[in-house]
Amino acid sequence: METDQKPALGWSTAVKIAWRELRASRTKFLFVILSVAIGVASLTGVRGFSESFQKALLDQARSIMAADLSARMFRLTTQQENAKLDALSVAKGVERTSVTEMVSMASLQGDPVPLLVSLKVVDPVRYPFYGTVMLNPAGDLRSLLTDSTVVVDDNLLVRLRAKIGDTLKIGGQFFKIAAVIEKEPDRLTAGIGLGPRVMMTRAAVDRTGLLQQGSRATERYLFKLGPQSGKVGDIRGEIEKILPDAQIADFRETSPALSEGLDHATGLLSLICLVAMVLGAIGVAMAMRAHLQQRIDILAIMKSIGAKSSDILRIYLLQTLLLGVTGGLAGIACGVAVEWALPFFFGKLLPLQPPLRLPVRSVSAAFGTGILTTVLFCLPPLLDVRKIRPNIVLRRAVEGGDTDGKVVFWKRVVENKAQWISVVVIVLALAGIAAALADSMLVGKWFAAALCGLLVVILGLSAVTLRTLRAFLNKTRLHLHSALRHGLANLYRPGNQSAAVLAALGTGVMLILSVFLMQHAIVNRMNTDAATSAANIFLIDISQDEVQGVKDLMLRQPGVEKKFESIPIVSARITSIDGVSVDQLKVKNYPKRLLSSVSVTWADSIPEGVKVLQGKWWQKSDADGLAIVDHVARRLNLHPGSSVYFESGDKAIHTHVAAIYKAEGEHVFARSEFILPSRALHGLPNVWYAAVHVQPSQIPFMERALFAAYPTVTVINIADILSTVQSVVHQITLVIRFLAAFSILSGAIILASSVASTRFRRIREVVVLKTLGATRNRIAAVFSIEFIVLGLLAGMVGVIFANLLSRVLLHKMDVSYHPEFVVSGISVIATAVLAVVTGWVASFRILGQKPLEVLREE
Amino acid sequence: MIEVRGLKKSIRNGSRTVEILKGIDLSVPRGQFLAVMGASGSGKSTLLGLLAGLDAPTEGEVLVDGTEISQLSEDRLAQVRGKKIGFVFQSYQLIPTLTALENVLLPHELNANGDGKQRATLLLETVGLGDRLHHYPVQLSGGEQQRVALARAFVLEPLIVLADEPTGNLDSNNGQHVLDLLTARQREADTTLVLVTHDKQIADRADRRIFLRDGRIVSDENGRQVNYGD
Predict the structure, then answer these.
(1) To 10 degrees, what angle do helices B74-84 and A776-812 make?
(2) CB B142 to CB A398 under 8 A?
């Protein structure tokens, strides 16, 4: 016998059928299109936006250093080094400028009283690479800072009783005060000099003759990376090779609060994009399943007239592709709109720019990913087509079901072999997509693994929950109120797939709540790190006798927070490390000269703003111990147990490293790189540094009051830098909250499509109930009970897993987790409310259905 | 028991109006078994639906036990149906999530007070399903499901039972059994039974037979002859 292998349906017929069905059921497919669109939109616009948002944040972080990289040295670069740096500039497009900082004396013309000032020599054409020097009167640094002018700190005007326009004498030369510095972007990373800031040009300082070979000046070379420069870490490595004795830092180290916030935000933003995508894909699969269920009769007819399963699969695969393409295009439109529109909303607070052209690469990647996930997630319901028997056309089979649960389960596992294989393919593809999408590998890895594992566990738990409820129902059903019994029984409506709906909805709740819980924990942490009460004023050069008086005065001032951090600073030098004298010592990127003048302080317990990374803090004031800041420990190759010899005056101190720590820049302890027990420094001469938070508007008054009482104390104002950090943190939280709304939208669509999937059966049920005499209220009560119970169960499953997932992820991110009982409770109730509302929206017009129309279709 | 006066029903089909019933006058007294016959599309099921108030007529009146039902609100109609009318459908229309007993009990819970469990159980025993009380519809054969539907139709002892091809999905043995049960219950309770069928043998068991063609009654076995094509 000859067998004809040619498919019964050609491609063109398949396309025609697929297209006509799509056109006829536009409203029904809205859910599918919406689900795909949200996934694709999150990958294009939202992701694109979050990328440009992160870039803007990084620019803010760069402004705190005024550069991408800085190299601090105590000498000028040699010709050979310059040649290498020039070569780097040509090859990689790395720009550079130098900033010289030194101490000098200055006096007002006609006033012989000199003042110690902190000179900063810059090239106003290039400096700063990022951020702006804000001046008063407002103006450009290039035009105001000339070879015959200086710009100065307000503190200098206070101390010299000077005003803008007066002439300052520095190094025997006269310079006109052109403006007051209101904001110096790299103030936090520049060294704390003695005395108020005076900024001048290189030609100006050359004129003074202050900068000679061997002068005590610090050179900071600032570098700016170009588009072809590559990663900052790689360039840093090259500069470290060229300038081996320079202390090199990159913008990621400027503010630990900021860089940590950025890392967390990056992880969260990736997570939110992935969540929206996965939820969207689940929504597509559920809507497709519903569609195919309603098509069973038509599919049976097609089979009865000779269509093979492969022919039908072809039609619906094409339909899925058409839906994917339509949803994808809608998603791209929505995504691009988001990318263009958001800068207008957030742009006031952050310098975000809309993209100049369509980001073709990210758009096509999102489009491809959207279609891939749509087709993959639709595979399991599509494969069910093979099980439809043509004899449904003649008579809907009514078979006695297997009552043995185990038999049913194994029978289903064997029957659905292809579905299981497709699930494995989905999981693998999802893991791949997640890994490719996640900017943070940590989040990507955990997300893919956790989601796959959790989906299986949640599905199992959902099935167990429903079985338990059914067992309860079977025992109590005739004692329950009939509406309640009927509503609960509806959870087991044939084709309801309550376990799958419960799992999908539970997963949605879990993901959304996880985003919320993580966001909450991270935002709390960031807010603590960048608290508005963090110190924004540093006071230096306070003598031992003045400390108490300065403290009292400050705390009396209006606008000063009731918190005054102070540390004593003892000047010391390091003579040997691990038995090797400093002369013989080989150190990485650390000027040895720094070791001859280190600032040491004491603390007998862990000070505020200090986090121990390695080792343990000492318990007693006479203990043998040294705490050292992490970046210095790394460069000096110190670790707990290393021995260090200090000398201060004529006192030698031999100690061992007990702890390595990280310090928050906004705390005063960040001003010292070495901390010893108090006894070790007892009796040595010291000066004090202090930090306090003052309301920005009160700072000028505070400065004047302090100068009147303690004229030798220098004020360093970092209020503007702190406000930058706070503004960035605020932006991050705002954007995270905005993007989390996308996940919530996806969750609602899943629920709606899952309810819509049983619409056909619900209509029949409504009609039968109406013919039996049920009123609309009664029917509404029955369905509402079903939705509420489904919502409550899904809410509980989601809440449990959200807390578990957040706990694990937060632990990995080194952020502490606290159970949020109120939020969890609200989530369960909100899910139930959402389930009822969405359930009724998706069941729209069911109650008003004319019975005869439905019965006639039977 | 049922009075129908000048009943017309039209539906819009695209730009066209299709007249399904073109003027029906009918009176069915209490306890009568009326068979409604006719070809597909003759308007049988539409007539049955209008008698039950499942749809509103375009013109005319339907009186059930003296109440004009075509003007009633949806909920009021549901109450009238629940208390006075029982239904038997060709495709059984049991609620799949409820057991046999719960399905039979449902009209009682919706429309009556007190515990109907005893009566529901008794009825199921009468139709031979005393051992299948707690089975779900999916666990019952077609014949068994239709017997559950019969018990459900009679649980409140309605004045009228409307049956739309009740044996259409059953084999001849099961069909015969279901019909025997239906007529026995109808006579026992003196219920008015309106049964739509294609089957002449079933119709022969009725007290009266009417034939519909193109939306009109063309023959009434009580002797009143109507000219074809009128």
Answers:
(1) 110
(2) yes
* A356 Cβ under 8 Å from any chain B Cβ: no
Task: Please enumerate in sequence order all residues whose Cβ is within 8 A of that of B31, keeping only pairs 6 or more positions apart, or say none.
Answer: B1, B190, B191, B192
Report DSSP letters for A43-93, one per residue. Answer: IIIIHHHHHHHHHHHHHHHHHHHTSSEEEEESSPPPHHHHHHHHHHHHHH-
What per-residue confidence (pLDDT) applies to A530? Answer: 54
B106:A482 CB<8 A: yes
Yes or no: say if A727 and A261 are a contact pair by the CB < 8 Å rule: no
> Residues near B46 by Cβ (< 8 Å), separated by ≥ 6?
A852, B9, B20, B21, B55
Q: Which residues of B fall within a CB distance of 8 Å from A470?
A: none
Q: What is the ipTM of this complex?
A: 0.80
At B144 the pLDDT is 92
Instruction: Identify the weakest region by mean pLDDT among A138-147, A259-268, B58-67.
Output: A259-268
Please tell me whether the peptide bond between B96 and the residue prior to it is cis, using omega within 30 degrees of 0.
no
DSSP B158-185: -SEEEEESTTTTS-HHHHHHHHHHHHHH
- Per-residue pLDDT tens digits for A703-717: 888 877 887 777 777
Report the 10 Å Cβ neighbour count for B71.
12
Which residues 482-501 of chain A have a CB within 8 Å of chain B?
Answer: 482, 485-486, 489-494
| pTM (predicted TM-score) | 0.61
Residue A675 clears pLDDT 80, i.e. is over it: yes
8-state DSSP, B60: E
Residue with tokens 């009566």: B119
Q: Where are the domains of chain B?
A: 31-53+73-220
The separation between the first and the last C-alpha atoms of chain B, rounded to the nearest angstrom, is 27
Sign of CA dihedral A138, A141, A146, A147: positive
Give tens-digit pLDDT for A159-199. 888 899 999 988 888 999 999 998 888 876 665 556 788 99
Is residue A352 pLDDT above 60, yes or no? no
Please list every residue in chain B whose beta carbon sits closer than 8 Å to the beta carbon of residue A477: 99, 102
How far apart, in whole angstroms, are the C-alpha atoms of residue B37 and residue A385? Answer: 39
Q: Which of A771, A785, A846 is the best residue to mutate to test the B interface, defined by the most B CB atoms within 10 Å of its own CB? A: A771
Asked if A773 and B87 come within 8 Å (Cβ–Cβ), the reply is no
The CATH class, in words, for B31-53+73-220 is alpha beta
Residue A711 exposed, middle or buried by CB count within 10 Å (0-12, 13-18, 19+) = exposed
pLDDT tens across B157-193, in order?
899 999 988 888 778 888 888 889 889 988 888 899 9
Would you call A398 and B140 a contact, using CB atoms and an 8 Å cutoff? yes
Strands B192-196 and B160-164: parallel
The pLDDT assigned to A729 comes to 61
Cα–Cα distance between A693 and A536 in angstroms, integer? 5
Percent of chain B scoring above 70 in pLDDT: 96
Q: What are residue B87's DSSP bridge partners?
A: B162
User: How many other CB atoms are found less than 10 A from the CB of residue A303?
Assistant: 22
A400 shares contact with chain B (CB less than 8 Å): yes
Q: Which chain A residues touch B52 with a CB distance below 8 Å?
A: 771
Which of B102, B117, B141 is closest, CB to CB, to A398?
Answer: B141
Helix (H, G, I), strand (E, B) or coil at A640: coil
Contact A549, A709 (CB under 8 A): yes
pLDDT tens digits for A24-55? 777 667 777 877 787 787 777 666 666 666 66
**A546-552 average pLDDT score:** 90
Residue at A58: amino acid letter: L
